[in-house]
Amino acid sequence: MVFCTLKGRRSLPSQKKADMECVVQGIIETQHVEALEILLQGLCGVQRERLRIHEICLKNGPNLGLVASEVRLLCDLEQTEPSWTVRHIGGAMRGAGAEQISVLVRTMVESKVSKNVLRMFYTLGYKLDHELLRVGFSFQFNRGAQITVTVSSVNKMLKLHATDEAVPVTPGIQMVEVTAPASAENYTEVAAAVSSFCEYLAPLLHLSKPGVSTGVVPTAAAAAASLMSDGGGTTL
Amino acid sequence: MPVRWILHWQPNQGVIVNSHIFNEISQCVESMNGVKDGRWKATITFYRPNLRDQSLSADFPRDFLGISLMDQPNKYYFIIRGNKIVLEADSSILTIMEKLQSYKSKVALNFEGVQYKLGDFQMKIIKVAPNQAENLRGILMEIEYLPISSVEKARPIMEEFIDIWREVLSKKSVPGQFMLAEADFAEYGLSDNYSWQHTAVQYATTLAQLIATVQQLRN
Fold first, then answer.
1. GO molecular function of the protein, one example (chain B) (predicted)?
2. Distance from A59 to chain B by nearest Cα, in Å?
């Protein structure tokens, strides 16, 4: 092409912002979710938000790219007009320092996009790996960091993209995830804020780094009963 | 947002686009009482797939473009012309694309323009040059009609304005004329209500036409 005489680099300045996140996960029996909601409501002082997210995980086709790559497309079905986000989750921080922290610190970049993002990635040579539907609720609040707690049941689709016919992957069990955006400068403080928040939830569930399964906690039933009887007034 | 039209300069046979022509066109806008209203910049980047086996390149889009517009500093636009896809994204998408390592930017073209106000119209006269190079490769003109955001409703007004503008240019005997390469917005799934995605599609369409014109003149 006549125009292409010089190799150029993209001209936008790289943006200095939080591109990491601190994350812990846990599971809870569905029968105790209501108690967890009461507890979270009391701790956060904000209203819960309903959550219904269609998550599509794509991987690069065999011939594309120099490395294996994965990207998630999230469609927020709670909005009147479904909105789309592209999310890239990078590698977790490693080393002795990372071992000592009880939360996982990893790179995470998100970009809100227009609706035809799936078509674009298919055209670029990405393939569907799997898709999920997360249904539940979330709380967002500031407690030493901008913390988001999501409580959701993870569902799989029996037919491609059929979110109306989704069935739970683990019936009777819901997933709890606590995340907070961080940067290379502040991740220790953010991790500490997330850890200290998780302690409040300890009687109901145990939260740990993703991939480190700790199961349900034995005190959950008693803690839930206590919460349900007095609406979260008891000091746990 | 107000409707915009983008036209490209087609020089007469044997004439090469140069700064002198650009200056003459700018003077014509000023002669129409156009008031300078700042500078404007955009960049179009061509992306190519990172392939282990180059012989498979036909399986991947050849015309994957990224557009950044100065008026929308937190947004980035992707276009795959062959497949009629336009995507608007937060500019953090660039970080994601870098991390994916599946496509790389090959070439970037700079669009630098001077903005003029003429009553309800806003015009930009734009130089197109390869990134980090001075040599002018093309001239574009963007016309914006501020009161209307419906593509169809703006059409007769835009056409009338362009007729007047062409007349002004012809009196100056500038060697060439502005041509309109109309983008088919419906093919891209865009509505009649004008948006930044329309602008991105127009720049991609006009650029393709501009490149075709340059190639035609060379052959």
1. transcription coactivator activity
2. 10
Closest chain A residue to the Cα of B73, Cα to Cα: A12
Distance from CA of A211 to the nearest CA of B (A): 23
Beta strands in chain A (DSSP E): 20-29, 49-60, 70-76, 83-92, 104-113, 126-142, 146-157, 166-168, 173-182
pLDDT digits (tens, 9 = 90+) for B104-144: 998 899 999 999 999 999 999 999 998 666 688 899 999 99
CB contact under 8 A, B49 and A5: no
Q: And the tokens for B146?
A: 């501020």
Is A136 a member of any domain? yes
CATH number for B69: 2.40.320
- Please tell me the predicted confidence (pLDDT) of residue A233: 52
What CA–CA distance (Å, rounded) separates A195 from A36?
A: 17
Whether A10 and B80 lie within 8 Å, measured CB to CB: no
Terminal C-alpha separation, chain B: 40
pLDDT band at A231 (very low <50, low <70, confident <90, very high): low
Residue with tokens 């001239």: B139
pLDDT classification of B4: cutoffs 50, 70, 90: very high
Note down the domain range covering A222.
20-229
Note whether B94 contacts A71, CB cutoff 8 Å. no
Residue in A closest to B216 by C-alpha: A2
Instruction: State the residue range of the domain holding B35.
Output: 3-218
A14 lies in a domain? no
The yes-or-no verdict on residue A54 having pLDDT over 80 is yes
Taking the Cβ of residue A64 and every Cβ of chain B, the question of whether any pair is shorter than 8 Å is answered with yes
Question: Is pLDDT at B93 greater than 50 in this prediction?
Answer: yes
CB contact under 8 A, A11 and B43: yes
Structural domain contains residue A79: yes
The interface predicted TM-score of the complex, written ipTM, equals: 0.93
- Could you give the number of structural domains in chain B? 1
**CB distance A113 to B90 below 8 Å:** yes
